[in-house]
Amino acid sequence: MLALRRLATPRALPTAALTSVRHYSLGRSEGSVAQSKEFSKKEKAHEDQYVKRHEAEQLAKLKASIEAKKAELKDLENQHEALEKNQK
């Protein structure tokens, strides 16, 4: 019975292991670079450049697609004219 009590009692953990805390200096807050106005302006400028470049690429693709469709339409019109001449 004495052995059962010994197993049932909780063990005390060393307090030094539980109280380890990391100390930071209070001179600057964390993330102060990300919160600065200059950084946000620069980030916005990079985003704007990316958006403009992406839109220009999409516009170029659309223009190329339009030109391809125009060429296809012209080819079909030529085929249509040729068929009409053959039927007469």
Describe the structure.
It holds the Pfam family IATP. Inhibits the enzyme activity of ATPase. It is found in: Mitochondrion. Residues 27-49 are annotated as: Disordered. InterPro entries: ATPase_inhibitor_mt. The protein has four helices and no strands. It has a domain at 38-87. It has helices at residues 2-8, 15-18, 32-35, 37-87. It has 88 residues and is mainly alpha-helical. The radius of gyration is 38 Å and the shape is rod-shaped.
First and last CA, distance: 117 Å
**Secondary-structure element pattern, one letter each:** HHHH
Task: Give the C-alpha Rg.
Answer: 38 Å
SS content category: mainly alpha
* Total count of helical runs of at least 4 residues: 4
Strand content: under 5%
Number of strands: 0
Summarize the structure.
With about 90 residues, the protein is an all-alpha fold. It contains four helices and no strands.
Which keywords apply here?
88 residues, mainly alpha, 0% strand, mitochondrion, coiled coil
